[in-house]
Amino acid sequence: MKRYGPLIVVPGALAIGDPGRHHLRLTPDAVLFRRGTEDTGTVAWSQVDRVMLDVPTTRFRLPGLASTLVIGALTFLTLDSLDLDPDDGSIEVTIGGEPTTGPLSRHHVGGYWAPTVDGAHRLLRHLIAHPEQRALLARPESLLDVAAKLARR
User: Fold this and answer.
1) Which residues of the chain have pLDDT under 50?
2) Residue 3: its pLDDT value, please?
3) Could you tell me whether strands 89-95 and 98-104 are parallel, antiparallel, or unpaired per DSSP bridges?
C-alpha cells in the first residue's frame, strides 16, 4: 500500500486515516465514513463544503520510523509487547453548511510530518473546488503524488 502522511491508497479509493479503524474513504462519487470495513455514512461530494483534519503534527521528516524504532527498543528492553495504539485524531466534514466531527485513526504513534497534513488539506480543497478532478480518485496512486507536490508549495 502506498501512503503519504494521513493519506493511503486502498482498493478503489483514497483513504484518510488508518483503514483498519476510523477513516474517510474518498471515491469519485462520494465521501464514505468508515470504521474498519463498516460504512457508517456516505455523503455525495456535491454536499461537501470542507474537510479538516485535526491530528498531531511534527516537523520531524520521518515520524513513523522514529516511533517504530522507539517502540521496538522498548519492547526489546521490557521483553514484552507494548500495547501502544495511537490516540485518534478527529476529522470535521462540513456538509451543506453544517460541520460534522468524527474520530480519525492514525497510522502510528506520534505526529504526522506537518507538510503531509498540509498537502492533504490542499488536495481536499482542490477536490471540493474542482468536481471534474474527482475522477482521479479512481486512480488514487497518482493523487498521492499530487498531494506530495501540493505539500511542497
Assistant:
1) 66, 69-71, 74-75
2) 86
3) antiparallel
CB 88 within 8 Å of CB 106: yes
Rounded to the nearest 10 degrees, what angle do helices 114-129 and 140-151 cross at?
120
Q: Quick one: which H or E segment has residue 100? A: strand 98-104
Q: What is the pLDDT of residue 97?
A: 96
Going from the C-alpha of 112 to that of each of 30, 39, 89, 101, 140, the distances in angstroms are: 25, 25, 11, 20, 20
Q: CA-CA distance, 74 to 54, in Å (whole number)?
A: 28
Could you list the beta-strand ranges (E) of 17-72. Answer: 22-26, 30-35, 38-44, 48-54, 57-58
* Interatomic CA distance for residues 126 and 121, integer angstroms: 9
With beta carbons less than 8 A apart as the criterion, state whether 29 and 48 touch: no
Residue 72 phi/psi, 5-degree rounding, is: -60, -45
Q: What does the DSSP 8-state code read for residue 133?
A: G
The C-alpha cell at 130 is 474542482
Q: Which cell numbers in the block locate residue 44?
A: 455525495
**CA 53/CA 121 separation, integer angstroms:** 8
What residue type is 62 in one-letter code?
Answer: L
Write the DSSP symbol of residue 136: G
